[in-house]
């Protein structure tokens, strides 16, 4: 039985060497929900996805997926768990020398013993779900950016995952394709009863489709809430994000020594 809470994160700390990236993150994510993770550049959003996928280990705290602590899984258990997760990092590039059909069939052929006739039906079903059944013979080079992303989506649901993690799914899309992809993420999550985590800078688009938003800043959860709560929030951090303001609590600068000392200017005007 898959628990209703698919992901539970408690007291999660993570550092790259000396550099502390996440400092005590708590989150819960239920089945059937679309959750956005937002935050300034370098705030640790992608790192959080990597922790959920077991690609890196926490310094302390834990991530539980479907009731199991990810960093305690044995190697083969982790591989099994990963089969239930799809990760679309920078919207996973398609295999350029394989047709749309073969791209979607790839994992089914790798990871199942299904007969080719059944794979064919399943691939066409997945392509139908993203509106591209008619494009199954095309090669990736013949697709628009939006279509390629829909194929990547069809591929990501090939093995009926419990969880899909999207890193920047809207980047570089025209406004129509952006809405199409947003709506697809929502519809597929609902239809398949999975959970979707969307790391994005696109506040306006994601607020239309998500159930819940977490904002990360300085390694902690700076704010969280439903889209309505986020839109109405007067917290400076959230306001800056939602309204795309340059000045506010989210710093434009990566932390550094004082500029003057970095440029060795002290005393030079004396
Ligand atoms: N392998 C690594 N080794 C050391 N530092 C890293 C490594 N990967 C990322 N970092 C640092 O960790 C911090 C968090 O990176 P991460 O990619 O998680 O941020 P992000 O919030 O996804 O950023 P963006 O929105 O710009 O993609 C950054 O400051 C980055 O420089």
From TrEMBL:
UniProt KW keywords: ATP-binding, Cell membrane, Membrane, Nucleotide-binding, Transport
UniProt key word Cell membrane: yes
Residue ranges of every copy of the ABC transporter domain listed in the record: 7-243
InterPro entries: AAA+_ATPase, ABC_transporter-like_ATP-bd, ABC_transporter-like_CS, P-loop_NTPase
Keyword ATP-binding found: yes
Signal peptide: none
One protein family per Pfam: ABC_tran
Gene Ontology molecular-function annotations: ATP binding
Top-level taxon of origin: Bacteria
SMART domains listed in its UniProt record: AAA
Name the UniProt record assigns to this protein: Phospholipid/cholesterol/gamma-HCH transport system ATP-binding protein
Protein species of origin: Nitrosospira multiformis
Lineage, top ranks: Bacteria, Pseudomonadati, Pseudomonadota, Betaproteobacteria, Nitrosomonadales
